[in-house]
Design a protein that fits this description.
The structure holds two protein chains of two kinds. Chain A is α+β, with helices and mostly antiparallel strands. Chain A is 32% helix and 20% strand. Chain B is mainly α. In chain B, helix 4 packs parallel to helix 7, helix 4 packs parallel to helix 12 and helix 6 packs across helix 7. Classes of the chains: A alpha+beta, B mainly alpha. At the A-B interface, helix 8, helix 10, helix 13 and strand 14 of A face helix 11 of B.
């Protein structure tokens, strides 16, 4: 009976805990105090500078120390369009036909060294992100292509002037890496933040042991009333999954904020029952199967089309979701976005057809026409289990059903990127994983490399660029959605520049005493810990 | 059909007699040989005896425990574990035998050559062997894979390279003793070429320790392949390979579907055990000092 109760408890816990997680935070009054310990599934980040780095390891360790101008709403982080002020006083309405945004900055905000934070700090930080001076590195320069100038006409005002009006601006502005640094320090030594921490966020820096842990303590001068609730936090670096699962199991850590595979979730739920809470949601990450069009026969669209037709995402996604961190069938646009294709729209695109046998028959015919029957090729993959290798194993089996003979070559991250950049591959398992859900910019991944440096398909296509530009600059949301469909259809169906796999699923398992945090569609968002409290 | 009347009786034993004697005197070695033969038969006839395709996903049968339909259960992709283990035997034996034979023969040539020529050739070769032997086998194999990448051919190269000095060192020791015997001097004075002396007169006399080493090398190579695959640096999915199966099962499914890791683990352990037992028995059978005990 005890066992049965345990199983029932474990089985129901996902449903119950998900419901609890979805309930408004106000349902319980947050308690103050305690230290949150969480795991960072990585080794030491290359640096602590959010402007320079792309890795989540930097963000998970340093986001609690910093403020940003705006952020995704922490009470509604699943939304891709709900933004709130962090340092600004209210979200501005654009003027000048959507090309000027004027932000008023909060008064009384202090950096952790006690000096006041002004609009000049915000403006200079953003100037370094948008137009970094010579010798300064900004990882997000390309995402801010629409920004012309950032100025601070007075100590409480920051003005962004855009080159063209676009709905991509506000999501880009909510970038969680866009830390506001102190102007004086930034001007004196822009590299200072690579090894040092000094912000105005909810926690003050306490200690950092490289590759081991990061510690922070409560900032008593934090400008959001009553927050943070925690006395402090300890983030522990652990690249190995089994270490992280053991830490949560033994309550040495409350959670990790990146995402776990289904097997780890099942294991923890089975063992800990209602002591853990599971939050899941679509993840703004997707693996792409990209043929190198500079190599034969992948320059032949019939071959690429056949490769797409062989794969059945409708059957694969639900099955793969049981073993890998993938879940939702989608096109180029994140499935939770208003700009995403509906199922009916998707099914008109090659590779998403409802009748897989018919699709595979067409694929075989195309291969025959292209003289590529029984084609053998190598699928290059990154040495990351979840979900890269799972997706590859699935795709290889799907391709075998039309007679393609595919082997997998797995490379460590460094050589993998070297091969991508040098074009030394036939077909690659790539990924598109962005900081925040900003489909207008996220879909730029399929643009030719001359426009988007991280495209590795080896093609040039002026028509694709034109379709993108028209879509990006379209002010009317309904028309923009139509233009997005045209762009998507051209990239995925007409040219088959890449083949989509199911979008990722983010699974966060945390100790049930950790309250106030809600899952977002990105492991880069909602990580400043200000709204987290411990119910114990 | 004339036998040489003065030869000792044991030399004139037929293969069947020798086999019977081996079975009677080396029961553990025979057991090891049986394991090796079973693995070899499984690997060679995988297409005919495996009940399912080793690579076909079956999403209706994911992580199923052992049953009548799937004797050893299925893995996370619904692939039949028995079929993957049978095909995995082929991968293990191909890598094991090719690595052992290539590494062994390269070591044989270098070892005998080093001993025969002596002087600066011996000095240089042995210092190179010292450097290579300073690294444990798996570390050296990891380094080779890190440089050349993963895949069956690279794994074979990765395992072969560290085996070469191990073989060369042992063979050289035997060859050094042979180099000094009168018939080698006689061959030299008769004007035989180096190749003829090495191949006709020295190599046959180091074959016994060489063969024993080969059997040990096959087991070591299988274990090294499994280790590399377990670390994600060996052969890659969907190729059926025991170490790879162990990697896929041990980390994520150890508690929920333990059979995914248990059966490939047993396959690796049994095969390596089999080669070790057979190798030991072969040494005992060949070594004249131990033969009549």
């Amino acid at each position: 009976m005890k066992t049965r109760t345990g199983v029932l408890t474990a089985g129901l816990s996902i449903v119950l805990t998900a419901a609890l997680a979805a309930a408004p935070a106000m349902a319980q009054t947050p308690k103050k105090g305690g230290t949150l310990t969480y795991m960072i599934p990585a080794d030491a980040p290359p640096s602590l500078d959010g402007h320079k780095e792309n890795t989540f390891a930097t963000l998970h360790a340093t986001a609690p120390f910093y403020s940003t101008l705006i952020a995704i709403n922490p009470d509604n982080p699943a939304s891709s369009t709900d933004f709130v002020c962090d340092l600004c006083t209210e979200m501005p309405k654009p003027t000048d036909d959507g090309k000027t945004y004027t932000f008023k900055i909060r008064k009384g905000v202090k950096f952790h060294d006690g000096t006041p934070l002004t609009a000049a700090d915000v403006a200079l930080s953003w100037q370094y992100i948008v137009h970094p001076p010579k010798g300064v590195s900004s990882a997000r320069e390309s995402y801010m292509v629409m920004v012309d100038t950032v100025t601070s006409p007075d100590p409480e005002t920051v003005v962004f002037k855009l080159k063209f009006a676009t709905g991509a601006f506000l999501p880009a502005l909510s970038d969680p890496y866009a830390y506001i640094y102190k102007k004086e320090t930034l001007e004196k030594d822009p590299t200072w933040f690579e090894k040092n921490v000094m912000g105005s966020g909810p926690f003050k820096f306490s200690a950092y042991e490289t590759g081991q842990s990061m510690k922070g303590v409560r900032n008593p001068d934090y400008y959001h009333a009553g927050q943070p609730y925690l006395d402090g936090f300890t983030a522990i670096f652990a690249a190995k999954q089994s270490v992280r699962v053991d830490a949560i199991r033994a309550d040495r850590a409350a959670t990790e904020f990146r995402g776990m595979p289904p097997s780890a979730r099942d294991e923890l739920v089975k063992e800990l029952g209602d002591k853990v809470t599971v939050q899941t949601g679509d993840w703004n990450c997707v693996n792409l199967l990209t043929p190198n069009q500079k190599k034969k026969p992948f320059d032949d669209v019939r071959v690429r089309r056949a490769m797409a037709l062989a794969i059945d995402p409708w059957k694969g996604a639900p099955a793969l979701s049981k073993i890998a961190t993938v879940h939702t069938v989608g096109g180029l646009v994140f499935p939770g976005s208003p700009l995403a294709a509906t199922k009916e729209e998707l099914q008109k695109i090659v590779g998403f057809g409802p009748d897989i046998e018919k699709s595979r028959a067409e694929a075989r015919k195309l291969l025959k026409e292209a003289g590529a029957e029984g084609l053998k090729f190598e699928l290059m993959n990154r040495n990351v289990d979840q979900p890269y290798k799972f997706v590859a194993t699935w795709a290889i089996d799907e391709w075998s059903k039309i007679g393609l003979k595919v082997t997998q070559k797995v490379l460590p991250t460094g050589p993998f990127y070297d091969a991508l950049r040098s074009g030394g591959f036939e077909v690659a398992v790539e990924f598109n994983c962005q900081n925040m859900v900003n489909p207008l910019l996220d879909v730029a991944k399929v643009l030719p490399r001359s426009v988007y440096p991280e495209n590795y398909g080896g093609y040039e296509d002026p028509k694709l660029i034109e379709l993108y530009d028209t879509m990006l600059k379209e002010p009317d949301p309904a028309k923009q959605r139509e233009k997005m469909r045209a762009f998507e259809t051209y990239a995925l169906d007409t040219q088959v520049d890449t083949i989509m796999t199911p979008w990722w699923e983010r699974i966060i398992v945390h100790r049930s005493y950790m309250k106030g945090w809600k899952i977002s569609p990105s492991h880069y968002l909602n990580l400043n810990l200000a709204n987290i409290w411990l119910d114990k | 059909m004339t036998a040489i009347a003065n030869d000792p009786p044991e030399i004139r034993r037929s293969w069947t007699q020798a086999a019977r004697l081996f079975v009677r005197r080396q029961p553990l070695g025979t057991f090891g040989l049986v394991i090796v033969v079973v693995a070899a038969i499984a690997g060679l006839s995988a297409e005919w005896i495996a009940p399912y395709s080793p690579t076909a996903n079956d999403f209706a049968a994911m992580t199923e425990p052992p049953s009548l339909a799937h004797w050893l259960g299925t893995d996370q992709f619904g692939r039949d574990l028995l079929s993957r283990i049978i095909y995995g035997a082929r991968t293990a034996l191909i890598i094991g035998f090719v690595s052992a034979f290539v590494g062994g023969f390269a070591g044989l040539v270098l070892g005998v050559g080093s001993a025969y020529f002596g002087g600066w050739i011996d000095l240089v070769l042995q210092r190179v062997m010292d450097i290579l032997m300073a690294f444990p086998l798996i570390i050296m194999a990891l380094a080779v894979v890190a440089i050349f990448g993963t895949g069956v051919q690279n794994v074979i190269a990765a395992i072969t390279i560290p085996l070469i000095p191990r073989c060369a060192r042992v063979v050289r020791a035997s060859a050094l003793a042979i180099r000094e015997v009168p018939y080698i001097d006689a061959a030299r004075t008769s004007g035989f070429g180096h190749a003829r002396i090495i191949l006709r007169h020295m190599v046959p006399n180091v074959v016994a320790p060489f063969l024993i080493m080969l059997t040990a090398f096959v087991g070591q190579a299988i274990l090294a392949e499994a280790s590399l695959s377990y670390l994600g640096l060996g052969v890659q999915e969907p190729t059926p390979a025991w170490g790879l199966m162990l990697q896929g099962g041990a980390e994520e499914y150890a508690s929920t579907a333990p059979w995914i890791a248990i059966f490939p683990g047993i396959a690796i352990a049994l095969t390596v055990f089999g080669f070790s037992l057979f190798g030991d028995a072969l040494r005992d059978a060949i070594d004249p000092k131990l033969r009549e005990r």
